[in-house]
Amino acid sequence: MISHLRSLWLVFKHMFHKRETVQYPEEKPYLPPRWRGRIVLTRDPDGMERCVACYLCAAACPVDCISLQATEDENGRRYPEFFRINFSRCIFCGYCEDACPTYAIQLIPDFEMAEYDRQNLVYEKEHLLISGQGKYHGYNFYRVAGVDAGVKPKGGGEKESEPVDVRKLLP
Amino acid sequence: MATIYIDNVPYEVKDGENLLQACLSVGKNLTYFCWHPALHSVGACRQCAVIRYRDENDTRGRIVMACMEPVADQARISIDAPEAKKFRAQNIESLMINHPHDCPVCDEGGECHLQDMTVMSGHNYRRYRFKKRTHLNQYLGPFLHHEMNRCIQCYRCVRFYNDYAEGKDFGVFAAHDDVYFGRYEPGVLENEFSGNLVEVCPTGVFTDKTLRKRYTRKWDLTNAPSICHQCGLGCNIIASERYGSLRRILNRYNGDVNGYFICDRGRFGYEYVNSQRRIQHALKQEPAGQWQGLKKDTAIREIRNRIRAAKRVIGIGSPRASLESNFLLRELAGAEHFYAGVSEKESRLIKEVLHILRHSGVRTPSLKETETYDAIFVIGEDVTNTAPRLALSLRQAAKNQPKEKAKALKIADWNDAAIREVIQGQKGPLFIAAPYATRLDDAALATHQAHPDEIARLAFAVAHHVDAAAADAELPEKAKAFARQVADALVAAKKPLIVAGTSLYSPSLIHAAANVAMALKKAGKEAGLTYTVPEVNSMGLMMMTDQYLEQAFEQVYSGQADMVIVVENDLYRRLPADQVDEFFRKAGTVVVLDSIAHRTGEHAHFVLPAGTFAESSGTVVNNEGRAQRFFQVYQPRNDIQSTWKWLQAFVEKEQLAAANLDDVIQQLTMAYPELEGVREAAPGAQFRVGTQKIPREPHRYSGRTAMLAHINVSEPKPPEDPDSPLSFTMEGYVGTPPAPLTPFFWSPGWNSVQAVNRYQQEVGGMLRGGNPGRRLIEANGSSLQYFTDIPAAFHPDNFHWNIVPAYHIFGSDELSALSEPLQERIPALYLALSPADAQALQLQPGQQAELNVSGQTLRLPVVIRPDLPGGYVLVPKGWEATAGWLFPVQSSLKPMQV
Q1: Spelled out in words, what is the top-level CATH class assigned to the domain B2-95?
Q2: Which of B109, B678, B813, B831 has the fewest CB within 10 Å, making it most exposed?
Q3: Is the pLDDT confidence value at A168 over 90?
Q4: CATH 1.20.120.530 fits B801-895, yes or no
Q5: Do strands B430-434 and B446-449 pair parallel, antiparallel, or not at all (unpaired)?
Q6: Rounded to an integer, what is the distance from CA B569 to the centroid of its chain?
Q7: Minimal Cα distance from B176: which residue of A?
Q8: Local confidence band at B176 (pLDDT 50, 70, 90 cut-offs)
Q9: B29-59 in b/e burial notation, b at 16+ Cβ within 10 A?
Q10: Confidence of residue B441 (pLDDT cuts 50, 70, 90)
């Protein structure tokens, strides 16, 4: 009997506590910038695709939900011919972002991806690619790489000397 | 055997090796760059440093390069001593100073020896703050991509290209850290083995251009152990697929056959598998000229009805189809109505080769054994273009005699730089008699160019010099001197090797070669005899039937047969077009099974899509009589399947209709006891490691749940393989599978092709569990007499010019010639003649000459070749216009009338 009355009292008391329930979706929760949500592909400061199709994200993915095919443009710049993420399999672990050597693939604070049809959770490159640089600014892989992919000539990088003239006789 | 102590643990190792080899053979991880099991040691990179102690009381020891230090009994070394580790880490740090930040866009990434070694040595952070040296790249042709920034100056490329393959157009330029590896000026790398630089280079300086345009990492490829189908040698390859297209071919080490290297035709000639000309679905042509697609079941039903209604069905097999496919066709048509799909001339030649291999008592060496012979006589064969990989082996064999000098000086065989210093470019006894100067001539001591008949006469004369009991032929003065020189050199050698082949379509040439080999054997030499054959399964096919194409035609002409099934064969490449046209006019119902659309297919009523080597499994027999299994790489998403699987649908015998590959082989060996060894060519489909199949995909294969998600988000069941113990997935046994079932080489810490070290019993030796393939023919008991069919001396005839076939590595082979990357390297059809003949005929280079071969007029641009002795002309073999010619052909020859 006493325990019943005590329970009633406790429930009654809670009516005056501050409410923890958030009125989602009218009221959006705060998500920190490093929150691991929907995956995007970003662009470098020059507005070109950052992804160089190195396949490291696909290799790191524990559920193997990333699939892509590398190809090259006329300058020899590598980019993905297609880039597909099957979000119905994705576990938002962020390993792909960790593995990415060019900051191309990034997880952003957006989780509102629910679909009635599972097929709609298959995202292609055009759904993934955004027009900005995402969380990491100022990095362009081809400026620091050794290859000439139309971004800088051989030896044009910050820490590169001019190409060697193999026919010079100087020591 | 010797006992060495590595970090105080005793190991049994082979005497005469170097310490690096010994360490790797016992499974130790030791870093290296410049050493290569086939190129041996030069001690250039300083990466395999170990500490060597004087005795067990020595605690300090001294740092030595393992690759330059011979194995000695009771030697004590340490790999793990802190000084040695530090030395290796510092060394790699300096090698990496200029290495660019390229891995994500580098094709070597993930299978890079430099990556593996860097991780192994523990170097992980670039401390050097100054600028990186850069280089400009060169265009090196359609096969190789050059990215010189990545070079770590190990010199392997020049050592392979210049020293091993003896290429002339590659080299090293500049000095100190500016050293540059490339050509004098950008251009196509000419050597036929340039593709091996992809595997020889420890990093990404040379990468496969054919893979580059749709690049895939090693871990994402579905691989299968396969056999190269582009010539008769049967080199072992790894074929790899991704997203339904074949992506690349790598060498698959086989200690008996190709070892570490394959030719460029084999490596880059695979693209026909992805060609637009592939037949994808069953087709029906009725009425003539109207094609319609058929469903698989409908096609089978309709063809089955035709077979039932037919009076007699004949089957035309093919030397490029597997034993199993040919066998099922034979079962379908009946043994007496199964015909080898080659001309009478070719079939008789190969029969003759088989006869000699079986009964001459002279050993036919494997490709690898070829490298142990010390004197070679090549008779009539342009080896580099007819059986390319053999040329590379012959080049190594030619160095054996000069190497004796180094042996006398007690220089170990792995001490490459020292041996070269002793040899000083001296040539060994390699002699070549061919109708024209061949690409191997630069390695030869002496060469001789003459008409095939004259070459046969020359070879008969050589045999006579060796053993007077052999028939002799009268020779012109120059040839006489050459014959004597060759005979003397062969007799002086310990292991002389005779190389001949079917390429000139001369039976007397084959007999002459046998005569020389038998005479040498009689003289007590350990002689060898190698014949090259035109196609991948030429030998296997001729072991199954005596009947040839002309007999099949006869069956149709006489009205006895009213249905023809042609398997993987373009008859227009076998006989002159007018004969084949006539045949098809009378042939009744024609069913063609092939992978590629060709002229024969145009005459078919039904065309069924057959698999190439990539989509089918089977067994082929190479020129030495070695049966080797190749496995399907991937399951295509259309009706393409192995030819023998298609034929199963029409066979009435129950044991065959629902059989898997093993059952077919079982039936095959029952029909042909000589082919018994085919069963042992690879483990059967029931084979398991424990309970596991062997995965075709590496365990890090990616994208499984996304690669087909655009079609349907629900993943399909992976395809099953009832014909082999290999699975089409990444699940299964991770470890070293039996050698014939090795789909790729990988071992923890060894992601590059150098992981093959871990699959060998000892480095550079046999694969664990024995090398794949079974020899079906062994030389035993000589029951052959000397041949006496010496051809008459050749006399030029200015009205009937003799046309001799010229071979080209790129172009002469039917299927590889369809590959896109090869197009740039395939020469346009030409007519070559000697300067004197050109002058007599008033032909200028580039001018069109008119030929008339079996009623067909052909205009070809003239090329003048000073190496030709005159009296005959050359025309490339295998081009569409010349493929059906029955060489040697004769023709009138005149400048084109304007």
Answers
A1: alpha beta
A2: B109
A3: no
A4: no
A5: parallel
A6: 20
A7: A171
A8: confident
A9: bbbbbbbbbbbbbbbbbbbbbbbbbeeeeee
A10: very high
- Assess B710–A contact: CB distance below 8 Å, yes or no: yes
Q: How far is CA B163 from CA B148, B158, B526, B711, B828, in A?
A: 20, 7, 28, 52, 31
- In chain A, domain spans: 30-144
Q: Phi then psi for B520, rounded to 5 degrees?
A: -65, -40
Question: What class does CATH assign to B348-468+478-537?
Answer: alpha beta
Q: Is A96 annotated as a binding residue?
A: yes
User: Residue B781: is its pLDDT beyond 80?
Assistant: no
pLDDT of B49 above 70: yes
| Residues in B touching A89 (Cβ below 8 Å) | 705-706
Number of other residues whose CB lies within 10 A of the CB of residue B131: 15
Chain A with chain B: Cβ pairs closer than 8 A: 143
pLDDT given for residue B898 in this prediction:
59
The amino acid at A115: E
Please compute the mean of the pLDDT values over residues B458-487 and round it to a whole number.
Answer: 92
CATH fold, domain A30-144, is Alpha-Beta Plaits (3.30.70)
Strand ranges in B221-373 using DSSP code E only, listed in sequence order = 222-227, 236-242, 245-251, 282-285, 291-294, 313-316, 338-339
CA–CA dist B634, A51 (Å, integer): 29
Residues in chain A within 8 Å Cβ distance of B244: none
Q: For chain A, say whether B368 makes contact (Cβ under 8 Å).
A: no
- Whether A102 and chain B come into contact, CB under 8 Å, resolves to yes
Q: What distance in Å separates residue B186's CA from the closest CA in chain A?
A: 13
Give the SS3 label for residue B297: helix
Nearest residue of chain A to residue B103 (CA atoms): A54
Cβ atoms of B545 and B351 within 8 Å: the answer is no
Q: In this predicted model, what pLDDT tens digit does every residue of B300-313 receive, in sequence order?
A: 999 999 999 999 99
Alpha-carbon distance of B849 to B5, in angstroms, equals 72
Interface contact A146-B150, CB threshold 8 A = yes
Is pLDDT of B608 > 90? yes
Residues 125-164 of A with CB under 8 A from B: 141, 144-149, 154-155, 157, 159-164
In this prediction, residues A73-102 reach a mean pLDDT of 94
Q: Is B580 exposed, middle or buried (0-12, 13-18, 19+ CB in 10 A)?
A: buried
User: What integer pLDDT is reported at residue A170 of this predicted model?
Assistant: 77
pLDDT digits (tens, 9 = 90+) for B548-597: 999 999 999 998 899 999 999 999 999 999 899 999 998 889 999 999 99
List, for residues B792-813, the tens digit of each pLDDT value.
Answer: 999 988 888 999 999 999 999 9
Whether chain A has a CB inside 8 Å of the CB on B782: the answer is: no
Model pLDDT, residue B897: 67
- Give residue B852's pLDDT band: very low, low, confident or very high (50, 70, 90): confident
Where residue B642 falls (left for φ over 0; alpha for ψ -120 to 50; beta otherwise) is: beta
Helix (H) or strand (E) holding B375: strand B375-379
- Report which of B628, B623, B608, B524 is spatially closest to residue B568, judged by C-alpha positions: B608
Q: What is the residue extent of each domain of chain B?
A: 2-95, 348-468+478-537, 801-895
Q: Is B802 on the interface with A (CB under 8 A)?
A: no
Q: Output the pLDDT for position B483.
A: 94
pLDDT surpassing 80 at residue B654: no
CA distance B714 to B284: 35
Pairwise CA distance, residues B640 & B628, whole Å? 23
